[in-house]
Amino acid sequence: MNNVVKEYYHDGNLKSVIYYDDELLHREDGPAFIRYYKDGTIEYAEYYINGVLHNDNGTASAVYCDNGDIKFEYRFINGKQVPIKEVMI
Fold it and tell me: Please, which residues have CB within 8 angstroms of residue 29's CB and are 6 or more apart in sequence?
């Protein structure tokens, strides 16, 4: 069962959402850690399964510009970083 922790900026806007299962970052249907800019756009997002960076379907860790463009993205399978083309096969 996932536990969800939400953190807010002083103005009440959402700052981050973290999903845990048995004290490990874990979420099967989306990123387990999401941090937002003050305007509500995503600053970065990370996908975890049982505390390990993992996403079979693409980016496991991404950093976004404040306009929503991807600044950096990383692909991980079972905690091991893999080239983007390896994941997309």
Answer: none
